[in-house]
Amino acid sequence: MHDVTAENQRLVDLVLDYSRRRILSSDTPLDKPASPAELTRLAGRTIDERGIGSERALSIFEHVLAPACITTDHPGYLSFIPTAPTKAATAFDLVVSASALYGGSWLEGAGAVHAENEVLAWLANEFGLPDGAGGVFVQGGTLGNLSALVAAREAARVRAGLAGVDQPPRWKVVCSAEAHSSIASAARVMDIEIVAVRPGEDGTLRGDAVRAALDEHGASVFAVVATGGSTNFGIVDDLASIAALKAEYDFWLHVDGAYGLAAMLSPLARDRFAGVEDADSVIVDPHKWLFAPFDACALIYRDPEAGRRAHTQHAEYLDTLTETADWSPSDYAAHLTRRARGLPFWFSLASYGAAAYRDAITAAIELARRIADEIRRRDGFTLVREPQLGIVVFERDGWAKADYDAWSAHLLDEQRAFVVPSSHDGRPNTRFAILNPRTTFEQLTAILDGMG
Ligand SMILES: Cc1ncc(COP(=O)(O)O)c(C=O)c1O
């Protein structure tokens, strides 16, 4: 299995050939899931003592398994938060695997860590964070939010200890009621309490509402999470008014920009994020609007030392790594072994330059505005909220949840688009999450036309 044999050479050629075709294809169908019974019937048994051979295994992948996976980089994939990796980023993901890089420590992966850190520093600078801000690429926004909040609580514990005050019976984090579900997940893992504050009618969490929560819950609040682009609507909380409270209250400000913070690269949206420069930590997912493949979340601390103190693992077998001042990415989140998952984004950014990213993000915002105008213009459609970034939420007047379900299933069955139902305040709706530069206005209007 490990030697360079004729059989292994053929196998590598097969895999690279498949990858090449897939990366360069512009007409991969949307595809759709199949039932377990159907997949068992079509794929047969693939694991036995002798092996079925690489040719057969790859053929089963290509003809049975891959078609049962929705093509997430398809321009008609408009659900959840899509992904649209660049050709450079996708191709370089192969290099990361081929090179067996270890991205956890400086000792083992200095070159890879150096490049990842250059990207993190570049992002930090875009967000207005001070020199010295830094962090690590983790698996996704969920782990990024959890790791940031763990660091925040650790800082609060240390502060309480130094001040000689008792820790609260239960630590609390304040966030918008429209914050991403991963904040509640982090709270469950950390056994802390969420103070969910109702945002304004427009979905924006503002300083006055946060102030009321801080007054009510006092010193048990160790962090406030503001969202830089909510998942359902792409709404950016009023970061400046929330950050201003740091002058009066003692809390760690974390900005969850998993989806939206990338929009700061566009002059069309940059101003919406004023105040992010005062955050203690931020996240943004390159696998969302920074056009990198799954999976990568950039977690950046204003003071990386706070992350290191909270997360470094200690053991005899790790002393070689932890008894140095080297920058080891493992030290900055709840993980140890890690893929150098920031490298595909690094390679793409280095290849195409930042301006190409600014243009692609700007184009998505423009398209979102254009289709929102179209929805507003059409009889029988209601725009639920004005889009701020690339997400457009709308209702087809009179439709119940079952109507959206049937329409959405039909769209996918016909392989035209993947647009799932959503809801707001108990009312069913649907949404276009636009970020793929290959998505066109005509594709979107054709979907609207199909809604009768
Ligand atoms: C605002 C926000 N935060 C966090 C997450 C979680 O990110 P991930 O799915 O990468 O864990 C998402 C995912 O859509 C998100 O939109």
TrEMBL record:
Entry keyword set: Aminotransferase, Decarboxylase, Lyase, Pyridoxal phosphate, Transferase
InterPro entries given in the database record: Aromatic_deC, PyrdxlP-dep_de-COase, PyrdxlP-dep_Trfase, PyrdxlP-dep_Trfase_major, PyrdxlP-dep_Trfase_small, Pyridoxal-P_BS
Pfam family name, one: Pyridoxal_deC
Protein name: Aminotransferase class V-fold PLP-dependent enzyme
Family the entry assigns: Belongs to the group II decarboxylase family.
Entry keyword Nucleus: no
Residues with N6-(pyridoxal phosphate)lysine modification: K288
Organism: Agromyces agglutinans
Keyword Lyase: yes
Position of the signal peptide: none
Gene3D superfamilies in alphabetical order: Aspartate Aminotransferase, domain 1 (3.90.1150.10), Type I PLP-dependent aspartate aminotransferase-like (Major domain) (3.40.640.10)
GO biological process: carboxylic acid metabolic process
Reported cofactor(s): pyridoxal 5'-phosphate
Molecular functions (GO terms): aromatic-L-amino-acid decarboxylase activity; pyridoxal phosphate binding; transaminase activity
